[in-house]
Amino acid sequence: MIKLIPKDLSILSANIKKNMFTKRYKFTVAKIVDDKEIVQEHKYAFGLHNFSNVNLYTSRTHTCNQLRTEDSGKSVILCGWVEYVRLNRFIVLRDGYGSTQLIIPENASAELNDFVGKIPLESVLMCHGSVKLRPADEINKNQATGMIEVLVDKLQLLNAVDTKLPFQLRKFNKANESLRLKYRYVDLRYPEMQYNLRLRSKLLMKMREFLINHREFVEVETPTLFKKTHGGAQEFIVPTHEKGKCYSLVQSPQQLKQMLMVGSIDRYFQVAKCYRDEGAKSDRQPEFTQLDIEMSFTDQNGVMLLIEELLSFIWPSELGKINTPFHRMSYEEAMLTYGSDKPDIGRSKKISNWTKYLPSASNEVFALVLKNSENKLSKKQKNDLETLISTNYPGVKFSLLNIKSIKTFKENLLKMFNGIDAAAVVDAHNISEHDFVAIARGSKYKALSALGKINEHFKADNSCDDRWRFVWIVDFPLFEIDSNHNIQSVHHPFTQPQTEITPNNLLEVKGFHYDLVLNGNEVGGGSIRIHDANLQTKVIDSILNIPIETISHLVEALKSGCPPHGGIALGVDRLLSILCNTNSIRDVIAFPKTFEGKDLLTGAPTEITTEDKKRYHLKFDNTQKT
């Protein structure tokens, strides 16, 4: 007789938990840690079999993705969410691991059949039953458990959905992202989200395993409440009850890990939460996670080798192998070749310098020739690209040309560039009808960057046999001119210069900085640090004009016997996003913010109370700007 227990579950659950907690307490006291003994105890207590670690300390015997043909005839307990109900007889039960079909016996009571038909989707059930093989014509080859089904003996309604869910979990009809983020606790049930978060957990565990067990690193947690750092990204300010005094949320543990090197923690790492108030950016989060690493007595090659070995160790076997050592490319070569300091070396096309075809030129001329790409850019896409380039590179003159006739193309070239050897251009670059040509002239790196944006747009059309395209970008400039014509650090002011800095070579000197790029995305960046207090003071105070007192704690540390050191940070969110092939890093974060920095789940940021304003001495200007 099939039993239906929708009401008395709390008593059953309490009894189960009591048994579980008693055994766990006993194990703790007796210090029994052997898995086999624990499994035997659970088999004895519940009359169950085939336990695995994933089911220890739970009410179930198997997950909804575990049962196979060899389990036929076994008595099992499954727990999960109701994914489908069909004909009041078939239930697909889903958990975080997969799904299994349950079948109500033909001799079941009318009451049970009626109940099954009324179970709201996504309600939580516990099923007691036995495993049976499906008939040959009912096997589902698209389901891991598709060879079997569970014949229901007893159903327990653990929790019925008593609200209208905002969306159903269907692959073919996904809700928009805003709705998914608002109801993230439902969205997390998607198999893709389960896979992404479980892969994230495994990779973080493997990172720790490699660094601690295989390379003798020490995991050290550093504060997130810190002192505001001048330069770099905008930081979040945290008011305190001391009037006029604020903390800042760290944009990275940079200074703290350098001081750990001074303190003889010579091999440091942590999985660090970092914060940057960078406004609306589609591929950024105001809070993000990075694997932060620092070593003493190392050099650039040492850090890069460590990361190559680390990634080889953690790389999921189902995603294929990565080839090491990674290709290396200077910043200059990357910009001249691809127009980007994060090139996708397998799919981006190479840029050509056309200046040599001109009798004279005040600015260099660069071009990108894309074969058979005449019709791959819609009018809207072309307008969007033109707007993007005009907005970001206002001094660059550029042309986007669809080659319908070689004769017309040559005529257009002569109109744009007086005296250009158009025939030599066509011959040297094998330009033919139906090609697409982008031409840019102006300030060297801005013109190249403009073509890099176009390259990025077209790279999806270019195939590549190498699935994982890693490249190290090295030899970055140490300084650059900002929009206000001031000197600023290209990365941060703690990078060791490759040569002596003089007033005459500020824009020529290169730093020991290195970025790791994967498939055209920056997934890591680091540098060898300045460990000499006098040099650090010169960079901060004399060159960047940052008040030295804002960083006096680090300068004092460098004076106290600081070893040569360097490190790197890997962007965990972005790396996972590439591995999981997601459209956004938000799909590999459990509870992300929108690209505008809003938390749709809770409505944060929200207004604070009058009491909080008084405690933190805050007064807001509520006047409306016109």
UniProtKB/TrEMBL annotation:
GO terms for molecular function: aspartate-tRNA ligase activity; ATP binding; nucleic acid binding. One of its GO terms (cellular component) is mitochondrion. The keyword Aminoacyl-tRNA synthetase applies. Keywords: Aminoacyl-tRNA synthetase, ATP-binding, Ligase, Nucleotide-binding, Protein biosynthesis. It comes from the Eukaryota. HAMAP family: Asp_tRNA_synth_type1 (MF_00044). Belongs to the class-II aminoacyl-tRNA synthetase family. Type 1 subfamily. This is Aspartate--tRNA ligase, mitochondrial. It comes from Aphis craccivora (Cowpea aphid).
